[in-house]
Every structure is written in C-alpha cells, then in structure tokens.
Design goal:
Elements (H helix, E strand, L loop, with lengths): L8 H56 L14 H5 L4 E8 L2 E5 L9 H6 L4 E3 L2 E9 L5 E9 L1 H83 L4 H26 L6 E4 H18 L3 E4 L5 E4 L1 H17 L7 E9 L2 E8 L6 H6 L15 H11 L3 E7 L3 E9 L8
Parallel strand pairs: 7-9
Antiparallel strand pairs: 1-2, 1-5, 3-4, 4-5, 6-8, 9-10, 10-12, 11-12
Helix pairs in contact: 1-4, 4-5, 6-7, 7-9
C-alpha cells in the first residue's frame, strides 16, 4: 500500500479559511446583486405607479372640465412631460393591439419578446423594462410598460465587484502569509524538538563512549602490543596477526568516533597531497568493493590543500562504505571525484545503488539514524560533523532506485576549529 503524504495542519487551516473567504465573497456579491436588482425593480415600479396616476389624473381633469373634444383625451399630450423625466427612457401604453401612447425615441416600440418578459422585470443593455395592467379613469384595462435607465446601477455593480475582488485578494494574501509563517514556525519547532532529542542521545552516547574508552582502549592497546610482538616471534603467522591488528585498529577508530560525540571533532590541519590520501581511502574500502564485485573508481587529481587528514579520510571512507552497501546488483559502480574551486574543495561520491527515499532524506545526518538493519547511524553524522568542522557542509541528492550523489564540501585554509 502506497504511503499517503499527510497534509500539515497549517495548510488544512489555510484551505479552510480560503474556502470560507470564497464563500463569503460569493455570498456578498450575490447579496449586492440581489439588492441592486431589487432597487432597480422598485424604481421601475415607482415609475409605473407615477405614469399610471398621471394618466388617470389627466383623464379625470378632462372629465371634470366636461369637454366633449375627443382629441383632448389623446395621451400624446403627455409625451413631452414623460420624455423630460430624468429616469424614463420610454413609456408604452396599449390596449390589446392598439398603441395609445409611445414615448420611446423615434417611436421605436420594444420587441414582443421584451414586452412578454417585462412582466416580472427585464434588464437588457443597461435598460430595465417593467410592465403591468391598470384601470384608467373610464374603467378600461390598459397595459403599461416603462423603460428606465440602469447605467448608475451597472456602475454600482462594477464598483462593488472591484471592491469585493480587492478585499478577496488582500484577504487571500493575508491567509497565505499567515499559513506560511505558521508552517515555518511549526517546522522550526519540530526541528528544535528533533535537535533536543538528538542532543539527549549524544549526551547519553558521550557518557557511554567515555566509559567504553576507559574500559576498552587499554585492553586494546595491550592486545595490539602483544600481537606486534608475536609478529616478530612467529613469522609464519604474520599475515593472520596483521589481520588481527587491523581489526583492533578499527575498534580503536570506533572508540574515537564515539568520543567525538562527547568532545567534538578537534582538527589538526595539515597540507594534504590528494593522491596520497586517495590511496589510503581506496585501500580502506577496496575489500568491500571486491567482495560485492563493484566497480570502484577514486580520481587521483594532483591537488594540494589543507585539512585534517585523519578525520577527512574517516568521513570519506564512511560515505563510500554507505555507497557500496546501497548497491545490490551486479552492475554496481561507485566513483569519487574531486574539484578545487578557489578556497573550496568539493568531494563528489556517486553511486548507482538503491537511492534514498524522500522521507529518509529528511532524517539523514541525524545521530543513530540508519536505514540499514545492522547500521549504527553514526557514519553520515560523523561525516557531517567533519564537514562542519572544516567550515563546510554535506549535501545529498538522490533518485530513489537510481542512485545517490553526495558532496562533501570543505574550505581549504588554515583555521582554528571552534566548537
């Protein structure tokens, strides 16, 4: 089953806030739109009432005058008055198919589709149409349609839209900044907790290593002296005794590495001729490469620089061992190349092994962390401390199942190590 990457709390909170902000913005725009539509509808309805009352009052005035002149009852008398109204674009009064009054510019009557849809109000091309039926003074049913300007309403909608978008963008930016710094704060807290946990491990390991050095180093020295004596007295067993001395030397190196956890790495910079140090590194890791039939190449560029040869060799050996142990196929290849860039010396170790997962990359370099079942988890940590002691760094780049590239970068200069 594939691992599912967990979404951190700040991102969940940020997405929730962004979703809520989006909903609120859409609701606000919907509310503004409905409010504007209602405002236009009420304006049109008020215009309808005004025109209907104006027509009825005109007819009642003529009735009171007891005039029989039919031309006086013609509503065209009201055209100038309606056309001078600031909001009205046009008024249409009709009975069945007979138009009684038309104040639209150039006498252009709205289309039948507009008239049919204007019963409930219709906004079209910045013009709002509304129609209804009313009884005139003579008790006759007449249809009335008004068209009012909605330019101001459209401008109000555009202004509201711009303001909403501006608020939305500013709020989104605020949420983004909030989430970014919250995530950064939580990440720093996690790093701090991991660092404290690592420090606790180092303190415990340091105490143990001090005890181990005291109890083990003296017996190892005694064994070493005894084996050297036997080499001189039993020549036929010299090869076996040399192997035993080599194993004792490795145990001494392990004790020194453990002591370094407590004391810190104390550097003794010397002038290093790289081909000489390269031979030492090569001989240290050659048995592993031969046993696994891996093609091991160490570039012997003639470069001279200053560093601590003992700790630098140990760091390189640890990294090359890791590279060799990561290869589990017959076409294995490990290369060590070297470049000198002004005061920087860059060692590049490349392999075509199984690579490192993204999760492991976040943990690599922590003391006692190892992806190997029998790994102690000090090799990379020691190499990292050696790089830091040389005012440099250790950089990993890996493609899972394709291989890993490790760069050990140090400064080529004479300096005093500071803990």
């Amino acid at each position: 089953m594939k691992n599912v990457k967990k979404i951190s709390l700040p991102y969940v909170l940020g997405l929730s806030l962004f979703f809520f902000l989006t909903l609120m913005t859409l609701f606000h725009l919907f509310f503004i739109n409905e409010l504007i539509k209602k405002h236009v509808y009420l304006d049109a309805k008020e215009a309808l009432s005004f025109i209907a009352l104006r027509i009825i009052s005109q007819e009642e005035l003529l009735n009171l005058a007891e005039t029989r002149d039919k031309y006086l009852f013609n509503l065209n008398w009201l055209i100038d008055e309606f056309q001078s109204h600031p909001m009205l674009i046009g008024v249409l009064v009709w009975q069945k198919n007979k138009v009684i009054l038309n104040t639209f510019p150039y006498g252009q009557k709205p289309s039948q589709d507009v008239i049919a849809r204007s019963v409930h109000g219709l906004l079209q091309n910045n013009v709002f149409y509304l129609s209804s039926t009313f009884l005139n003074a003579r008790g006759t049913n007449l249809r009335l349609l008004v068209a009012i300007k909605s330019d101001l309403v459209s401008e109000l909608w555009i202004v509201s839209l711009r303001q909403s978008i501006t608020v939305f963008i500013c709020s989104s930016l605020f949420i983004f900044i909030f989430v970014y710094y919250l995530q950064k704060y939580i990440a720093n807290e996690k790093k701090l907790l991991l660092k404290l946990a690592d420090q606790e491990k180092l303190v415990a390991a340091g105490k143990f290593s001090a005890l181990l050095a005291h109890e083990v180093r003296n017996p190892l020295n005694t064994l070493s002296i005894g084996l050297q004596t036997l080499q001189e007295t039993i020549p036929e067993q010299r090869k076996l005794l040399a192997i035993l001395l080599q194993q004792i030397s490795k145990l001494n190196e392990l004790v020194e590495e453990l002591l370094a956890l407590q004391k810190g790495i104390q550097l003794e910079p010397q002038s290093i001729y790289w081909p000489d140090l390269a031979d030492n590194v090569y001989q240290s890791v050659l048995p592993i490469a031969q046993s696994k039939q891996i093609d091991l190449t160490i570039e012997r560029t003639e470069i001279t620089f200053r560093a601590d040869p003992k700790w630098l060799e140990r760091a390189l050996v640890n990294l090359i061992k890791n590279a060799l142990e990561s290869i589990d196929h017959s076409q294995g290849k490990v290369t060590l190349t070297l470049k000198k860039l002004k005061k920087l010396v860059v060692f590049t170790i490349e392999d075509n092994g199984k690579g490192i997962t993204a999760q492991e990359l976040t943990q690599i370099g922590r003391p006692f962390f190892s992806s190997k079942s029998l790994g102690v988890g000090l090799g990379v940590y020691i190499a990292q401390q050696v790089a830091k002691a040389h005012q440099g760094k250790l950089v990993f780049k890996s493609n899972f199942k394709r291989g890993t590239v490790v760069r050990l970068i140090i400064y080529d200069q004479d300096f005093t190590y500071r803990r």
